[in-house]
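Quick one, T. Sequence first:
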Amino acid sequence: EFMQASWDIEEVQAKGIQHLASFVKNKSAFPCLQKCTEVVALAMKTHVSSLELQVEGCTLLLEILSQALEQGVLMGLGERVASCLLHTVRRHSGNEEFLSLLCTLLMMVSASGVAAENLRKVGIIPDLLSILRRFLHNDKICSSCCAVLWSLAVSENHGDQEVLESAVPVTSAVLQKHLQNGVVAESACSALWALSLQGCLTDSDYEPTAALLLDALRMNPERAVLVQNGCLALASLVRLSETAALAILLDSKGSGIELIKDEYHLHFDEPGVAEALCLLMKEMVQYDEVMLDMRSQKMEKLLCEIKLQFPFS
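Structure tokens:
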């Protein structure tokens, strides 16, 4: 009430945010803090030029969302909060250090389907792509933005196909730049999977994207989630085009089939990885030439192994 009575006084908003932050460690105060997110976001929007207030507000919102996650509470932040965060993104789009914090907040916000939908509605995708292009070197920003893109792309009712299509080259550039960084590569693979599911790739994208995904699998074989999402992304490409299937077979850096076998043996106790690999193989055998090659490389043996390992799945 104190903050709402004096929106125009920056010091009041700053003191209010600081005072609310002092309750973060008190678990009994959490239900009340949950109700403060809109007040904090509006304070940030009202005094958007104050970087100090933006940082404190952003940090407090992150603390509240982190605590919600710990307690298994899913917070669906409203369209008003999404609009305030977009306002902050646009006002401080050149501040790399602050954007690193803000993009982490956006990633946590977008974990809720409702909040992701609200971010999409206010039109945040072009801003995310602009940030990625500008700060392609920053692994933290790239990882967070790709995670947000994934959340927005898997949203079922989006009407911004053209905007999503423009995300493909940017996401590919992120993956290419950070192939050896498992966290960023995992996030970028997930985003490419979601974009391919939404039909955002064109004929000219299939072969280079498949090659890039194979590179990500080769560079990060130990990351089960990356392997799983990379294979699901490949499966959705192969479903659309034989070119992608042939790119897997004839990859210049080595047989994609051998890579699939190696990944399965590395993660033989991970049902998610096995399922993703099976889905990829299921899509590949729809093409006669590809199926003959898979037979010659004894893929039936691998399938039998998977069947024995997961007899009840």
